[in-house]
Each structure stands twice: as C-alpha cells, then as structure tokens.
Amino acid sequence: MADTPNQEQKNDGGGVPVVLLPILMPIAIVGRRAIGVFDHTGDVFYLLTDTTKWFFRGLFSRRYRLGKSAIVSQIVRVGVESIFIVSLVSAAVGLILALQLSPPLDDFGQRDKVANIISVAVLRELGPLIGAIVLTGFAGASIAAEIGTMVVSEEIEALEASALNPIRFLVVPRLLASTVSMTCLGVISSFCAIVAAMLISITMLGIPYETYMDNMLTQAKQVDFWTGVAKGGVFGTLIGIIACANGLRVTGGAAGVGRATTYTVVECVVAIVVADLVFTAIFFALGLF
Predict the structure, then answer these.
(1) Is 15 domain-assigned?
(2) Cα-Cα-Cα-Cα dihedral of 16, 18, 24, 28, to 10°?
(3) 57 assigned to some structural domain
(4) Does 204 fall in a domain?
(5) Domain residues for 170?
C-alpha cells in the first residue's frame, strides 16, 4: 500500500509521468519542427552541391555537356515571361515611394531629396527584393509543381532507369535559368522603379528634371548598383534550388504537389529576406554604404 499516493502519477509506457506530458508537448513540437528545418536545409544544401558538381562537369567535360536548348528555354520561361509583371510591380512601388516621401520631406523643405532616397533604396534593396518576391510566385512555384508532377507520374524514375541523372537534366537548367534571370530582373526592377519615381516627381511633385538627376547621380554610387546585382544573383539561386528541392521531395500525389508549391513560396520568401539581411550586415561591416 506504500505505492498508493503515487498511483495517480501513471506512466505513459515510456517512463514519463502523465502529468508531465502537457508540459513536454510544446518542447516536443518545437524539437520536431527544428529537426525538420535542419533536415530540409541539409537536403537543399546537398542538392546545391550536387548541382554545382554537374554544372562544372558539363562546363569542362565533353562527356557531360550542358543542354543549351534546355537552359535557353528555361530562361525564356522563367525570366523573359516575367519581365512585364516585375516591371509593373516595381514601377508601382516607385510611384508609391515618391508620393509617400514627399509630405515628410516638405516639412523640412527638402522635397527634391526624394531622388536621393529612392535611388539608393531601390538600387541596394528594393529592386532585387521586389524582383525576387515576384519571381518566387511567378516561376518558383511553377518549377516546384513541374518537377513534383514528374515525381508523381514516375518520370524521374524513368530517367534514372534510362541512366539519365535527373539533377543534370532537370535541376541544372532550372537553377541556371533562375540565377541568370533574377540577376537581370533585379536590374530591370530597379530601372523601372527609378524611372517611375522620376516621372511622378517631375509631373506631380514639381521637381525639375535637372535637379532630380543631379541629386540621384550625386547620391547613388556604382557600389550601390553592384550590390544590388550580387543580391539578385543570390536570390535567383535560392529560388531555383529551393523550388527544385521541394519538387523532388513530393509525395502523396496531387496533394503533395500542392504542398510543395506552397512550401516553395513560403521558404523562398523567408530565405530571400534572411539573405538580404545577411548581405546588408556584411556590406555595413565592410563600410560599403
């Protein structure tokens, strides 16, 4: 009868008292999520290294040639077809910035400094960031769905049965296309935002063209442009590799394809913002601003 007071603290079969389960449950959930994140990050990194290996093999070995037609077709589908929507969104953001910055600057009699702020903000941050987010929804989800459908329909297994490496034939062209396209789209996005802001500043805000151009060229430097270009290339690589990794992990038929596209958009946006933060911290530490 000595065990009577402790009979209420029954075990769950694994040595953990039942009373502790509600306390340990959140820790277990967080732990499982953390393990899942690290596992998925490892998969993406491994896929990136494997893709890089196949790229250099195709670049320097005649035995493993890169499919130029496949790369060009992916660049057209990923990059060229998204130029309009990226330009539209970037121009709208440029207009919004000019109109929003004008009233606060008017309080200090510095309305013409709109050009200084917008040129630096767009070249360093907003141009590549807007282009990357738009490209994520436009092409990233499409890549994940396309490869995921191939997995569900067993086309990947058919490639492997024919002694064709799916990373070489599927991932390499899409990763190259997203990287090259995003590098160019970042420049296009910055250009459209700056031009739109300039037009609205000249026509509605009453800033003379010569003043706007002088302020913009005085404030913006080449380093601002090249940091934006570097960010665009990295953002494109992140979009391509995350989309391909999620596509190759698809299980569960059509529902799995839907989950892959959703995860791709969310993960790409998070990865892009975190990468942008890392870039900004590095550039700030190096004194490039």
Answers:
(1) no
(2) 70
(3) no
(4) yes
(5) 67-282
Contact 168, 268 (CB under 8 A): no
Tokens found for residue 219:
């404030």
Phi, psi of 32 (to 5 degrees): -65, -40
Domain count, the chain: 1
Contacts 24+ apart (CB under 8 A), 216-223: 216/115, 216/116, 216/118, 216/119, 218/116, 219/115, 219/116, 219/119, 219/120, 220/119, 220/120, 220/123, 223/288
- pTM (whole model) above 0.70: yes
Contact 145, 262 (CB under 8 A): no
The string of DSSP codes covering 203-220 is HTS---HHHHHHHHHHH-
54 part of a folded domain: no
pLDDT digits (tens, 9 = 90+) for 91-116: 999 999 999 998 898 888 888 889 99
Q: What is the pLDDT of residue 62?
A: 74
Q: Is the pLDDT of residue 80 over 80?
A: yes
Provide CB contacts within 8 A for 288, sequence distance 6+. 223, 227
DSSP codes of every residue in the chain:
-TTGGGTTS-B-SSS-BGGGHHHHHHHHHHHHHHHHHHHHHHHHHHHHHHHHHHHHHHHH-SSS---HHHHHHHHHHHTGGGHHHHHHHHHHHHHHHHHHHHHHHHTTT-GGGHHHHHHHHIIIIIHHHHHHHHHIIIIIHHHHHHHHHHHHTTHHHHHHHTT--HIIIIIHHHHHHHHHHHHHHHHHHHHHHHHHHHHHHHHTS---HHHHHHHHHHH--HHHHHHHHHHHHHHHHHHHHHHHHHHHT--SHHHHHHHHHHHHHHHHHHHHHHHHHHHHHHHHHHT--
- pLDDT tens per residue across span 136-178: 988 888 999 999 999 888 888 888 888 788 888 889 999 999 9
